Records
---
Amino acid sequence: MSEDKKIIFSGIQPSGFVTLGNYLGALNNWTKLQDEYNCLYCIADLHTITVRQEPAKFRKTARELLMQYIAVGLDPEINIMYYQSHVHQHAELSWILSCFTYMGELQRMTQFKEKSQKHSDNINAGLFTYPVLMASDILLYQTDLVPVGEDQRQHLEITREIANRFNKLYGDVFKIPEAYIGKVGARVMALQDPAKKMSKSDENKNNTIAIMDSPDVIMSKFKKAVTDSENEVRMSEDKPGVSNLLNIYCAVTGYTVEQAEKEFSSSGYGDFKKAVGEAVVAKLEPIQKKFHDLENNKDYIDSIIKNNTERASYLAERTLSKVKKKIGFTPKVR
Ligand code: ATP
Ligand code: LTN
């Protein structure tokens, strides 16, 4: 890591195949940052167990997520990409910071409210303290910027609160991070229900496009996407389905909304949806190819995991040991 570059940290949960929402809201933006910043990207597997996982499938999904990081263009020699559960400092700092976080703050988190509604049979304490673990991820690396989608903004705010609170008590221990939210693709909505965000753990697979979906599947999901009773391709709050498709189209092609509206000014929804599907298929094709190449390269992936875990652990330990000292824990006798 070069000392003069700012630090970027982010993560994605291995809770399923990466969606077009994750790609446009997060991964695609990350690939543009790797030269200018020192970037760390974790596979947030500790966060994932806030919802029950089937062990074999979980392990496979986590491995595939790392391969998708690489396939979208994140260079594992430049960026530090690793599993959160391999770096024990995350869980340790999370306990410490949970003692500097108030119940009231956590109760206000919309993700907690949403997830506890969705998993009403398993509202566990981890789901509640999820933002503290996320704050620990970020603060461990003295992060300057956190590129995430709009849905994570609130978690960033609480991270800053916790860091400021800690710093006030103990001096400048943590860098105060800022959210870094891309404009295009910041929030991709579910195709069948554009009032909610596209989410990789959604049970209705017609709501999501996985970046590994085949061209046929992608085309058919766009064909089924909800629009409205008009037949006018226009960005508008009262046209959430069409607006979402336009947003996707612009994000993958690089066109502005005005350009896209003009392009489809005399098209019906059928043609419009087909064009959106085709643009997405074209964008994902090279990613899918790279992913399949990586599937045949087990040793390479293993070596990435080993090296990057070591790099992350070293940095994480620097902050954690400082935190422990400041708090007044008794030093180990060597
Ligand atoms: P889950 O379904 O398990 O909650 P998710 O698909 O919502 O997963 P996360 O792992 O929580 O995704 O998020 C990974 C990254 O993708 C985050 O930076 C998040 O802001 C971004 N992201 C997630 N969903 C969307 C979306 N629909 N639009 C834009 N960005 C998104
Ligand atoms: N909670 C995030 C994933 C995540 C993350 C992080 C993002 C875990 N740790 C640290 C940014 C920084 C999510 O669900 N998108």
Note: The chain has 13 helices and five strands.
---
Amino acid sequence: MSEPRSTPSSNSAPSSRSTSSLRSTQWYGGDDRNGYIHRAWMRRGVPDSAFRGRPQIAIANTASQLTPCNMHLGEVLSAVRDGVLEAGGVPLELPVVSLGETNVRPTAMLWRNMAAMATEEMLRANPIDGTVLLGGCDKTIPSLLMAAASVDLPSQVVPGGPMLTGHFRGVALGCGTDVWRLSEEVRGGTLSQEDFVRSESAMIRSKGHCNTMGTASTMALVTEALGMIIPGTAGTPAPDSRLLVAAHEAGRLAVEMIMTDRRPSTFLTKGSFRNAIVALAAIGGSSNAVVHLLALAGRLGVDLTIDDFDRIGHDVPLLVNLQPAGRHLMDDLHRAGGLLAVLNEVRDLLDPDALTVDGRPLVDHLDGATIWEPDVISSYATPLQERAGIAVLRGNLAPDGALVKPSAASPHLLRHRGRAVVFESIEDFHARIDDPDLEIDADSVMVLRGCGPKGYPGMPEVSNMPLPRKLLEQGVRDMVRVCDGRMSGTAYGTVVLHVSPESAVGGPLAKVRTGDWIVLDIEGRRIDVDLAEEELAARQPSEAAAQAYAQPARGWERLYVDHVQQAHTGADLDFLVGSSGSAVGRESH
Ligand code: FES
């Protein structure tokens, strides 16, 4: 792994900006009554010097005992704090909404925008000049990034890092991916229920987030490629002492970013997103990154569309041999050279001008980045797969687009024609999937609707529907599946997901009937139901699907379904798109 770059060694704030222009002086500057109030209540062991022109840095912390992947962020915070103090700033912990992927119901995605909104407003409301954002579990980094973009204060992410690899009976276990695999083996009769439960205690070996190339790992690596993490840092395992060194450096860098006014809007460009998309394809990252990057671009006003993922990612080869697309786990990737070694292989595809949090181009950090274990990171010349970028499909089933992850799909299903077996909701699916009388075979196409942003609501990770038990017992391990929801980044299979518009708003998916022919052509970028245009237009949406569409009466869910946008634009709320900046609110004393 390349070493994180070093920030300046003196402990005085680097200055191209005067300390009197700091945002926080609007709270702490002056000796009038308001200055008195703002300072006095903060003086609880805080020296007077803290209020006299030192950058105030919020360390937004998503640590929570209900977010087990982020439980260790307190120690990361301590290292950031040391770095901030060393560079002359004042560190201030800001606990923010945390989303534990395995705990939060109905789906953490329902709360991503709420977490982003709450964090944005607390950053804006408080006397701070910049932020360090501590995240890890799937939605935490995306929500922090969206918040930082909309408040546009100098910001950077410190990722909490993946856990170490656990083993069960001599075999490495990948978090998430092996849960799907082992549960399918139980249902297929090749693994006992007792052994399945025994493997449970071996899976989570240490602190940190999931160790597959799931959404958490993907978002950490993609955020580094975007420029929002000190290069060479993302992917450092949570227990690795180098993570704390990187956190310390981030604290020092936070002060420099404030004094040079390095805000997200000053360096995150379309080129930054290009680099993120190239990284996403090369690592075989989670399809969830698409909705998160689109939402982030919307906050920044960067003109990014779903088609950019296909256009930019199309020629990028898969280089990283990690589950779910491959074999290894995040610990192995870090040891093999990490993201910088991967990006060095696709250097020619990167935007050479896109900057990172340290003010230097991302590509400048790639010199000397080396692949140490070719079995984990392949070279550009000998990739694991050509053209591994996420494919964007269109057709009469998805006029606004749908995604498929070729690196997770089965080669024999990349072109497929099969009869639809339609499920009106995830509950309908669970009720019928193992019915011995269900008319379904290996060539059928499983269609699940009612799982989009508004329909569920929250666009859950259910698109990778488990296969019918009777087909598993026959040895079938993949089938074409089509859904308006998402799928876990740890999942695999030939799954067409994020179908837009979703069925709940009258998308064509709502009109498909069991027995219709579904035609998938990933190379041709098509997903269609084989019906004449007039016949499809004349069909009414499924009544059962309409009934399954949730209509929350109040609270966040009400706000969410009234304002959430479709997947192809990032599923942000319409009134949260864009930025309000960091203007200081009115004084109320
Ligand atoms: Fe937190 Fe997987 S459950 S990263």
Note: The chain has three domains: 19-165+205-365, 173-203, 391-569.
